[in-house]
Amino acid sequence: MTLGVNIDHIAVLREARKVQDPDPVDALSLARLAGADQITIHLREDRRHIDDNDVRRIIENSQLPINLECSINPDIIETVVKLKPHRATIVPEKREEVTTEGGLDIPTYHEKIDSVVNFLKANDIEVSLFIDPTIEMIRASKILMVDWVELHTGKYANIHSMLYSNLKYNRNSIKELDIQRRELKKMLKNALEQLVIASQEAKNFGLKVAAGHGLNYQNVKDVANIKDIEELNIGQCIIARSIWIGFQKAVSDMIKIVK
Ligand code: PXP
What is the pLDDT of residues 71-119, one digit of tens each? Predict the structure, then answer.
């Protein structure tokens, strides 16, 4: 299993103040030293975190391969081809969403995706499609002759968090909670099974299989154990944890100076 570390959220923090720090480029060597296999970033149409200059600097400075997530918007694709990441992962994108919700709707956008895939491949960029873990989407991806599929783990992650994190805030009776818990356990098992079946099908079709979205320190183990998934892309929880790992030292460094 390999790990792609998504560093978008470093740029989210920088953009909250429109300053220069923290710079996602500074994360590259640290991620590599920690053992990461890949850096993942998302160039959104609204450039809300990573911008074109970040992508350019990240590609120039990284010793790890760069997996660039992007929509099929023609301007974005032109930019991606100029910047030449190792891989482009095509994701659906809506302006108003907080993060990527759901996988690509390949049947609806088949022709557009097909021409983007061909254009990227003609420019020597590996292509991945971010899809829901369904047989329909795996078959549609196979027809498009992409190198990778990345299975959306958001549904699994949401159910996991409802079951193990949110339930303690629930005001229902013990009996109602028990029913809810049993129901959620079934749903979680099904969501995991969908990932197992989809990854098997994709592998049988000769596609390489990645997975990601919403994975964290609590829920990642079962997904990492799925034998046909060879790469996970994880971001938000790593950046969140790094705050708690470094916060105390950051405060004490400041106290040393101000005192
Ligand atoms: N993979 C894809 C395709 C994504 O869009 C994202 C979120 O940008 C991730 C992985 C990482 O998700 P998270 O930040 O929830 O770990």
Answer: 999 999 999 999 999 999 999 988 777 777 789 999 999 999 999 999 9
The C-alpha torsion from 28 through 88 and 76 to 111, rounded to 10°, is -170
Mean pLDDT value across residues 120-140: 98
Q: What are phi and psi of 211, to 5 degrees?
A: -150, 155
* Under 8 Å between Cβ of 92 and 116: no
List the catalytic residue out of 42, 49, 152, 160. 42
**Does the reported pTM lie above 0.90?**
yes
Closest C-alpha among 11, 20, 25 to residue 57: 25
Length of the chain: 259
Q: Closest by alpha carbon to 228, among 184, 187, 194?
A: 194
User: Dihedral angle at the C-alpha atoms of 240, 245, 249, 250, nearest 10 degrees?
Assistant: -10
- Domain boundaries 2-258, CATH class: alpha beta
**Tens digits of residue pLDDT in 186-245:** 999 999 999 999 999 999 999 999 999 999 999 999 999 999 999 999 999 999 999 999
163: left (phi over 0), alpha (psi -120 to 50) or beta: alpha
Ligand 1 mean position, distance from CA 119 (Å): 24
Q: How far is the CA of 143 from the centre of ligand 1 (A)?
A: 24
Question: Which residue among 40, 141, 238 has the greatest number of ligand 1 atoms within 8 angstroms of its CB, and so is best to mutate?
Answer: 40
Question: How many Å apart are CA 186 and CA 218, to the nearest integer?
Answer: 18
